[in-house]
Design goal:
Layout: E1 2-8, H1 14-29, H2 35-57, E2 65-73, E3 76-83, H3 107-114, E4 117-124, E5 128-136
Antiparallel strand pairs: 1-2, 2-3, 3-5, 4-5
Helix pairs in contact: 1-2, 2-3
Length: 142
């Protein structure tokens, strides 16, 4: 199954985005996945990725669309979040030190801990940036 959603760069749409993702996955996977355990994980990574686009990549440009693509094969999912911002040089990222009590920088860490694979590509497909996250959802009995 492949599907996509395009929404404005407006944090008020975060619930729409989360519900779209979980609704699509539940339709496709049904009772093969423990949704009680997986929904919080998926909701968190998507909310983090979407809010980063709204707050940083498209800051002050609510009319710029955010494109979210979902592909599911069996229990493997790939989630792409496309933005039109200047992008972020991921090579400059350093994980936050918990003792520093810094405000930001945790998103990349969270996404990498909760997903099996995270990749960020700058200025592709006509100058857009793509954050791609992949995960295999465990069977219900796992």
């Amino acid at each position: 199954m492949r599907t996509e959603l395009q929404v404005p760069s407006d944090i008020r749409f975060v619930t729409v985005v989360e519900n779209w993702l979980l609704g699509c996955l539940e339709l496709e996977l049904g009772d093969k996945v423990d949704w009680q355990r997986q929904s919080n994980r998926l909701r968190l990574v998507l909310a983090e990725a979407y809010s980063n686009v709204v707050r940083h990549a498209h800051k002050g440009q609510p009319n710029l669309p955010v494109l979210i693509r979902l592909e599911v094969k069996q229990r493997d999912l790939a989630l792409e979040i496309w933005d039109q911002g200047q992008g972020y040089d991921i090579d400059t990222y350093t994980a936050p030190d918990p003792e520093d009590l810094q405000d930001g920088g945790y998103g990349w860490l969270i996404m990498n801990r909760l997903m099996d694979r995270v990749e960020y590509r700058l200025q592709i497909d006509g100058g857009k940036n793509c954050l791609k996250m992949e995960a295999s959802l465990p069977e219900i009995n796992s």
